[in-house]
C-alpha cells in the first residue's frame, strides 16, 4: 500500500482513522521532529495511507552539512511494522534528497548495531555499512552511507 506524505509543521492539522491506536507514539514523534527545527524540505513527514491511517514518521535529522550529507531517520509505529512502510518512508527521503542534488551528494543513516528491520532497509536501498560509531546521544550505532547517483 503506497503512502502519502504530510509535512510536519507547528500548524499541522490532519485527520486519521487510527489516532487511538497510535496516539502514544504520534505526539511524541511530532514533538521530537518539531524540536529539530529544520526548515522545509529538511523536516519530517507523516506516512499516511489512502485510508487516512498514519503508519509512521520519517525525517531528515538536520539540513545538509558542508560535505553535502544529510541524515535520514524513519520510524514505523509498532502496529504497522513489517509491512514495507519503513522502506517506503526511507525511499521518500532519498527521493527528496535526490531532488536537491545541488545541496546533497550523500545520505547517511544510523541504526542499532544489529541486523534489525532498519539495517535490512539500509541494505535493500543500497546503503553501505561503514562500521560502528559512538554517537554522542544514541550510543553505539551502525553508520550507513549511500552516495546519490
From TrEMBL:
<dbReference type="GO" id="GO:0016747">
    <property type="term" value="F:acyltransferase activity, transferring groups other than amino-acyl groups"/>
</dbReference>
<protein>
    <submittedName>
        <fullName>GNAT family N-acetyltransferase</fullName>
    </submittedName>
</protein>
<keyword id="KW-0808">Transferase</keyword>
<dbReference type="InterPro" id="IPR051531">
    <property type="entry name" value="N-acetyltransferase"/>
</dbReference>
<feature type="domain" description="N-acetyltransferase">
    <location>
        <begin position="3"/>
        <end position="149"/>
    </location>
</feature>
<dbReference type="InterPro" id="IPR016181">
    <property type="entry name" value="Acyl_CoA_acyltransferase"/>
</dbReference>
<dbReference type="Pfam" id="PF13302">
    <property type="entry name" value="Acetyltransf_3"/>
</dbReference>
<dbReference type="InterPro" id="IPR000182">
    <property type="entry name" value="GNAT_dom"/>
</dbReference>
